[in-house]
Design goal:
By secondary structure, the protein is an alpha/beta fold. It has 4 domains: about 1-160, no CATH class; about 185-285; about 290-325 and about 370-400 and about 555-625, FAD/NAD(P)-binding domain; about 405-550 and about 645-695, FAD/NAD(P)-binding domain, CATH 3.50.50.100. Helices cover about 50% and strands about 15% of the residues. A 6-stranded mixed beta sheet has the order 5-2-1-9-21-20, covered by helices on one side. A 4-stranded parallel beta sheet has the order 13-12-11-17. The longest helix is centred in the N-terminal third of the chain and has 59 residues, at about 1-60. The chain starts with a helix and ends in a 13-residue tail after the last helix. Residues about 1-10 and about 195-200 have low confidence and may be disordered.
């Protein structure tokens, strides 16, 4: 027993250390991916402008260029005219290619030679050596991601252009074999520059640089040391230095930035230390396939916010994880209504699941549908007949729209929970305008231009506002027989007010903002019938060819799989640790779970709530794997409610702080961009929104899937 306890403690300590080191490694990798492209671009532009200005001035006064080549910096083995032509050509053409990142290595070679010729044949300045060092970097390493070389790389590699493939192989060999040597030489050269002043009464800056110099030369703690040296240079200030010192310090910052972001290379103490740490702590190097067969198995059903967070939280745990989803993408549901109203493309709100786990070795992704759970055998049954065993099961299966027993309404009033739902709504919405344009019957045209949204929660409010904006602004001037702005948009809510989960004051603001957009808000109105001709609302017949459903949700059939207790919405009732009562190895999170961890109230079905639950379940499972059982119960931390009504209106409720109007809209937008799981999508969505904000144009007004 004592031996088992000691082993568990050692395993726990090892995982803690491994987790810390892994987090540091991940942070450095994120910094490299995020910052290096911009540093690389800044260096290229700085070098390019210096040489471009010199070349243009010489071109503007060719006699002066010839005089300089003859008397100021003659090259003994070339005539002055050739020197002037070569120098100006390299400065002008080379700087242009360098700035664009086009044929960067080929452009950097003559610029490297020119820098060395200037230094040794004309005037020996330290800046010439910094130029040479940076040009040498581009010769060996090539340009960064923000360059034409990277943009054209895949296309050129598959082209039939001569010399492209041999050059590509040569570049790869150069980077692979010369790169480590160049990184070592660069570190040694910088360290030698900083070591000399220490011997002759150094200043604070010189003492600091002299201290980090040996560490930099060894490649020990290289990135922190490079960052410390850069901070020392910045802290010393540029005000007291002369122009030459200022320029030289800037070049030193450039070089330190390259070392800090790209690392010391394999010829360094850090590389040796990393290999040793990987032997001590296997999670740092990734689990081997053989090792993964002998560790506990965690099955996560559903790749929504809760499932993804749980799986990511187990990246350093001694277990293997299988993520099962019937779709191959993670969907950002809060922005799905923007796909439905032609503001965003489906690709903007959906990310392939496998791409999210590309670097997590202990995760396997399965595209399949779970149809049942065998509790006794601890297996999940898949639609294709396969059975997957588990030691721990995380149910994050989400929710679907509910018609409160009237499923016959679904063909006439699609809900909004999937990408397919969004594209169906977009098709029906855009087709309604197209059919109205060609319709000669005034009554039928009015039915086509009447849109009913059932449900006054966040989805209904956002959908109604987006449809009204599309009709009144996005389609302006595009039709000849109809005026889209005359479309009638009705939002039907059975409750006394919109957004019941928000404070009453914000509900009133939302209703007023919708009315300003032209939406007819119908509260205390009950939908009694929906068919192909429209809807019956509190005894009033409203003709409409387009009805959308945003009134209710029903949890997935997870409770039926487990044959356990559920609430009226189908949610599994879970305990304080999010386990299903009587099944300590089964967890439920997100819309699948009914947890009263919000100060005794049910946790809302929001993305932040699902993420918090997923992270908590990952911690619980890791604690059990490490022999720890005493963890506090899950407690939901409410981050607030947000809903948008239009391009300049939103409501935000943080409890202690409430906001509405344009500022709330910007806050809403930032929050939603932050919660997107893909960095590229954050940029693309932000650009798409900004373009639509300035122009009212929506770029995804595509009718796909055939006629209704």
């Amino acid at each position: 027993m004592l031996t088992t306890t000691v082993a568990a403690l050692r395993h726990r300590r090892a995982n803690v250390i491994a987790a810390y080191l892994k987090h540091v490694d991940e942070a450095l990798r994120v910094a490299e991916v995020t910052l290096y492209p911009f540093l690389d671009l800044a260096i290229r532009l700085w070098l390019a402008q210096a040489f471009w200005v010199s070349g243009v001035l010489k071109l503007a006064n060719w006699d002066t260029a010839l005089t300089l080549a003859t008397h100021e910096y003659p090259v003994s083995w070339l005539d002055p005219f050739t020197v002037a032509v070569l120098g100006v050509s390299i400065e002008v053409l080379g700087s242009m290619l360098l700035a664009l990142g086009l044929a960067t290595r080929l452009a950097a070679i003559p610029m490297l030679v020119l820098s060395l010729v200037i230094h040794f044949e004309y005037l020996a300045l330290e800046s010439n050596l910094y130029w040479a060092a940076l040009f040498g970097w581009y010769v060996v390493m090539g340009a960064g991601p923000i360059s034409m070389d990277r943009l054209l790389a895949s296309g050129l590699a598959a082209s039939a252009l001569p010399l492209v493939k041999p050059l590509g192989r040569l570049y790869a060999v150069c980077t692979r074999y010369l790169g480590p040597v160049y990184q070592l030489v660069l570190r040694l050269w910088l360290a030698s520059l900083w070591y000399a002043p220490v011997l002759v009464g150094p200043s604070f800056l010189e003492a600091m640089l002299g201290f980090v110099g040996p560490l930099l030369a060894l490649g020990l703690a290289t990135r922190p040391v490079a960052i410390a040296a850069a901070l020392a240079l910045l802290g010393s200030g540029f005000m007291g230095a002369d122009e030459i010192q200022t320029i030289n310090r800037l070049y030193q910052l450039f070089l330190l930035g390259l070392i800090a972001l790209r690392g010391p290379g394999p010829i360094a103490a850090d590389a040796l230390l990393r290999r040793q740490l990987a032997r001590w702590f296997p999670p740092l190097a990734g689990w081997s396939d053989a090792a993964l067969n002998d560790v506990p198995h965690v099955v996560v059903v559903g790749a929504g916010f809760g499932g993804l967070t749980a799986a990511h939280g187990l990246r350093l745990a001694a277990c293997r994880v299988t993520v099962i989803d019937k779709r191959n993408y993670h969907l950002f549901q809060p922005l799905l209504y923007q796909v439905a109203t032609a503001s965003l493309s489906p690709a903007d709100v959906a990310t392939p699941i496998r791409a999210l786990f590309r670097d997590q070795h202990n995760v396997r992704v399965m595209l399949s549908e779970v149809v049942d759970v065998d509790i006794a055998a601890r297996q999940v049954n898949l639609s294709d007949g396969a059975r997957i065993g588990y030691d721990y099961l995380v149910l994050a299966t989400g929710a679907r729209h509910s018609y409160f027993g009237r499923d016959d309404w679904e063909p006439h009033a699609p809900g909004l929970k999937r990408v397919d739902d969004a594209t169906v709504i977009r098709r029906r919405l855009l087709q309604a305008f197209e059919q109205a344009e060609n319709c000669a019957d005034p009554e039928e045209r009015q039915r086509l231009l009447t849109f009913i949204i059932v449900g006054g929660g966040p989805t209904g409010v956002e959908l109604a506002g987006a449809i009204a904006e599309l009709a009144r602004h996005g389609l302006t001037g595009e039709f000849r027989n109809i005026d889209p702005a005359q479309a009638r948009v009705l939002l039907v809510q059975s409750a006394p007010r919109l957004l019941p989960s928000f404070p009453e004051s914000l509900s009133e603001v939302s209703a007023q903002s919708l009315r300003t957009l032209g939406v007819e808000v119908m509260t205390k109105s009950r939908v009694e019938m929906i068919d192909a001709e429209g809807a019956l609302v509190s005894g009033q017949r409203i003709g409409s060819r387009t009805v959308f459903w945003a009134a209710g949700v029903m949890a997935s059939p997870a409770a039926q799989w487990l044959k356990t207790e559920a609430d009226a919405a189908g949610r599994l009732k879970v305990g304080p640790d999010l386990t299903v009562p009587g099944l300590p190895e089964v967890f439920a999170v997100g819309d699948t779970a009914l947890s009263e961890a919000w100060d005794g109230k049910p946790v809302p079905g929001l993305a932040p709530a699902a993420k918090q639950q997923g992270a908590y379940v990952a911690r619980i499972i890791k604690a059990r794997l490490e022999g720890r059982t005493q963890l506090p119960p899950f407690r939901y931390r409410h981050l607030g409610n947000l809903a948008t009504i239009g391009r300049q209106a939103a409501v935000v409720d943080f409890g202690w702080f409430r906001l509405s109007g344009a500022l709330a809209w910007w806050l809403w937008g930032l929050a939603h961009i932050y919660y997107l799981v893909d960095t590229r999508k954050r940029f693309s969505v932000a650009i798409e929104w900004f373009w639509a904000y300035l122009t009212y144009k929506r770029g995804t007004r595509l009718i796909t899937g055939g006629q209704e």
